[in-house]
Amino acid sequence: MPQGFLDQVLGFSGLSFKNLPEFSLKPLPLRALKINRVIKSTEMEVMTLQAKGRKNLGKVATKAVRKDKLIPCVLYGGDEIQHFTLAPLDLRTLVYSPEFKIVEINLDGNVHKCILKHVQYHPVDERIMHIDFLRLIDEHPIKIEVPISFEGIAVGLKSGGKLIKKMRSVKVKLTPELLIDKIVLDTTPMELGQSHRIKDLVVAEGIEILNNENIPVATVGIPRALRSGPEETPGATAIATAVTPVAGAPGAPAATPAKPGVPEKKAPEKKAKGGKSEKANKK
Q1: Of 4, 11, 21, 75, which sits most exposed with the smallest number of CB within 10 A?
Q2: Max CA-CA distance within the chain?
Q3: pLDDT digit of tens for each residue in the chain (283 aa)?
């Protein structure tokens, strides 16, 4: 593009080609991009809840809380136990989700970092009746249920197999500093009939899996069509029966002779209606 044309175009806006700021598009280093992706994948999702403290405890006070369409909750762990209430709508993404999250409860201006420990439901309509939260204390080990994330396409699936997920979560023991939201299982190298067990799960140092190491987590099942051999042609059985000659017919094989010294079995005599045999009646 000629220099004069650029000067004419920029002249309408009061700018000149010489006064333009210098800039250059430099690609980010690949190492920096990889670090950002790793940090993003390891970040724990944090959920903030606004709570209201409870002073009156007992059955009567708890019934009054549920009548106001609130959920009674308790926060334990450490030396202090705190009672409060939460709105049911605020708990939807926490309770009805397979993901593991860290919860920050804002109670009377103080923020408490904790996790969801137990949810009590109504036996009939399954509405939430009570929730327990566990406070996170630094360097204090806790036991939690972590979901398993199945990634990759197994080799056995391309051969006609089916991935059977036998476990959806595992129980682990770790400190709050090592909290994870999931355990990834790569199913790509799994072939037909192959299984991955608890001992095949890869976790960071300091995280202990409490489940039995021999329990299968996932299996590539072999379909029935691949397990069984080639099936017979339909109608083959009927044709074979029709071709088999009847004993005594021309071309049929001779009957097997009786063994010498073995008496032939006589047919049992038929009894008449009176209870006597036919020979007695003839006499």
Answers
A1: 21
A2: 144
A3: 555 554 554 454 454 545 544 544 444 443 333 322 222 334 678 889 999 888 888 889 999 999 888 999 999 987 888 999 999 888 888 988 888 889 999 988 889 999 999 999 999 888 899 999 999 998 899 999 999 999 999 989 988 889 999 999 999 999 998 998 889 999 999 999 899 999 999 888 999 999 999 999 999 998 888 777 555 444 444 444 444 555 555 555 555 555 555 555 565 665 555 555 555 555 4
Q: What is the CATH number of domain 46-137?
A: 2.40.240.10
pTM beyond cutoff 0.85: no
The class level of CATH for 143-226 reads mainly beta
Per the document, the length of the chain is: 283
**How many angstroms separate the CA atoms of 116 and 92, rounded?**
13
Identity at 51, one-letter amino acid code:
A
Q: For residues 192 and 161, is the Cβ–Cβ distance under 8 A?
A: yes
Rounded distance between C-alpha atoms, residue 187 and residue 65, angstroms: 48
Find the DSSP H helices in the chain: 3-11, 30-42, 59-67, 92-95, 155-158, 224-227, 236-243, 278-282
Alpha carbon distance 128, 66 (integer Å)? 10
Q: Which part of the chain is CATH 2.170.120.20?
A: 143-226
